[in-house]
Design goal:
9% of the residues lie in helices and 39% in strands. With 485 residues, the chain is mostly beta strands. The strands form nine sheets. Strands 2, 30, 31, 32, 33 and 34 form a six-stranded antiparallel sheet that branches. β13 and β14 form a beta hairpin. The longest helix has 11 residues. The structure holds fe (ii) ion.
């Protein structure tokens, strides 16, 4: 286990800005590349956490940089490119910060932030490939289309106008485009991609999206909310889209006036219950189910059992970390951010009841599954994790959790692994048969390595050296070679 001060120093060093864009083969430094591992790994995350000398106050604000790793069975070709959003380009042109962000106001206090409603689209949270298009995602605004090979930014993408906001004036002033979250879910049977956005207006709403396999988007569906909710991820089962509405509320007036950032305006009523919102996919009215207090950024998976009960596995925190704590962390101070722990919610939609049980006391987040089983009964997930006695929000471990056999951990301390992404050995391989890919920040070398791991015991299959370091990113996706045209 690394001490808190050592972990903090490693984390802060990993946040250094990436100054260059590369295009080169990676050096294999350990093991052998599996011949069957063929396809492209795309990942997204902030390439820098400061702009022109001003540190962002929240990791959600750093400019998105997409990385691309093409595996051909013999070697891995690497490329990284910043997403050239309109705001990124405008700031690069003038050499200073021009826009407010989700968690960072402009320097200069209220005088410079008052009623500034144009927020920066950081395009930094995830990347999805669907119907031949590669999109960089950020939950507050439009996705950005990238060339799947060169990673050149082709522009923001609104699905032929379907993401234009036709809501009330207040809503359109704040968000001329509908938000499109960074956690879309593919229905493995239909090939449809589902996603959502949270929309502010006189009545706050969830907007639900369905993108057909040909890339066309169906008319969005609107579901009214009791209040503007902070929803980062959702669960798609065969019958439902499921949202966890925690008792976290936006101080809309404070955020819009410039007194606070949107994330700084969030207030958490820790002891208030969570409302689970189950939206039937057949168009019938939404069902609400009361649940225990708590906040979840991420879900591993969810499904219906044979009796119609709904099971959801998510990473539950006691409460949302405060903006002040996150800001203090980025400024180099030790903070007490509540850990997330894998938790199962067993929901009876008819009786409107929910039972909650911890799957393991192990701290874990950024869970991923074998995506072929999205929305279906499943056995395995992988996640970043930390030791029970580890202080601070530092994840030095990876976790493999298997619902029958239990868990396996691998400790990388003092290094910092990123989201472990499972890749099946083939389309017909059994669940959990394949590889796990993770980018690991190597503390001593101040460089990042790409690990290929065995999914069961997380042992190293091989390791490749990047020519530089990457700040710890968020999410990625795998595109197998037979789908890469
Ligand atoms: Fe996320």
């Amino acid at each position: 286990m690394a001490s808190e001060s050592a972990s903090l120093a490693v984390y802060l060093r990993s946040n250094a800005s990436v100054q260059r864009e590369f295009d080169q083969a990676l050096q294999l430094v350990e093991g052998e590349l599996p011949a069957g591992l063929r396809g492209v790994l795309y990942r997204n995350g902030p390439g820098k956490l400061e702009a022109f000398g001003h540190r962002y106050d929240h990791p959600f604000d750093g400019d998105g940089m997409v990385t691309r790793f093409e595996f051909n069975g013999q070697s891995v070709r690497y490329r990284n490119r910043y997403v050239r959003t309109a705001e990124f380009l405008a700031e690069e042109r003038v050499g200073r910060m021009l826009y407010r962000s989700f968690g960072t106001n402009l320097p200069g206090g209220l005088r410079t932030n008052f009623l500034r409603l144009h927020f920066k689209n950081a395009a930094n949270t995830s990347v999805v490939h669907h119907s031949g298009k590669l999109l960089a995602l950020w939950e507050g605004g439009l996705p950005h289309e990238l060339d799947p090979g060169s990673l050149e930014t082709l522009g923001s993408y609104d699905f032929a106008g379907q993401l234009q906001n036709h809501g009330d004036l207040l809503g359109r002033l704040v968000a001329p485009d509908l938000p499109f979250s960074a956690h879309p879910k593919l229905d493995p049977e239909s090939g449809e991609l589902h996603n959502f956005g949270t929309l502010m207006g006189k009545t706050s709403q969830l907007v639900l999206y369905r993108i057909r396999p040909d890339g066309s988007m169906a008319t969005p569906r609107y579901v009214p909310l009791p209040a503007l909710a902070f929803v980062h991820d959702f669960v798609l089962t065969k019958r439902y889209s499921i949202f966890f509405l925690s008792a976290v509320s936006f101080g809309v007036a404070r955020a819009l006036s410039g007194l606070a950032t949107p994330v700084g305006s969030l207030s958490s009523a820790d002891s208030a219950p969570t409302t689970l919102l189950l939206v039937p996919r057949d168009g019938s009215p939404a069902i609400t189910v009361p649940a225990q207090p708590g906040f979840l950024f991420h879900f591993a998976n969810g499904f219906e059992d044979a009796k119609g009960q709904v099971v959801v596995d998510g990473m539950r925190m006691d409460a949302l970390p405060s903006a002040a704590e996150v800001r203090a962390l980025l400024a180099g101070r030790s903070v007490n951010i509540p850990p997330a722990r894998p938790t199962r919610y067993s929901i009876d939609p008819l009786a409107r009841r929910c039972e909650e049980s911890q799957l393991t006391p192990t701290k874990a987040d950024l869970p991923t599954i074998d995506s072929r089983l999205s929305g279906r009964p499943y056995r395995h997930f992988w996640a970043i994790s930390s030791a029970p006695e580890q202080a601070g929000p530092f994840y030095h471990r990876l976790l493999h959790f298997e619902h029958r056999a239990g868990q396996t951990l691998r400790d990388f301390a003092p290094d910092l692994p990123g989201e472990p992404l499972f890749v099946p050995a083939s389309e017909s391989a059994a669940e959990g048969e394949g590889w796990v890919l993770s980018l690991v920040y190597r503390a001593a070398a101040h460089r990042t390595d790409l690990y290929v791991l065995r999914p069961d015991d997380l042992g190293t299959v091989c390791r490749l050296e990047l020519p530089h370091h990457l700040p710890i990113g968020f999410h990625g996706t795998w595109l197998s070679a037979n789908r890469f045209a």
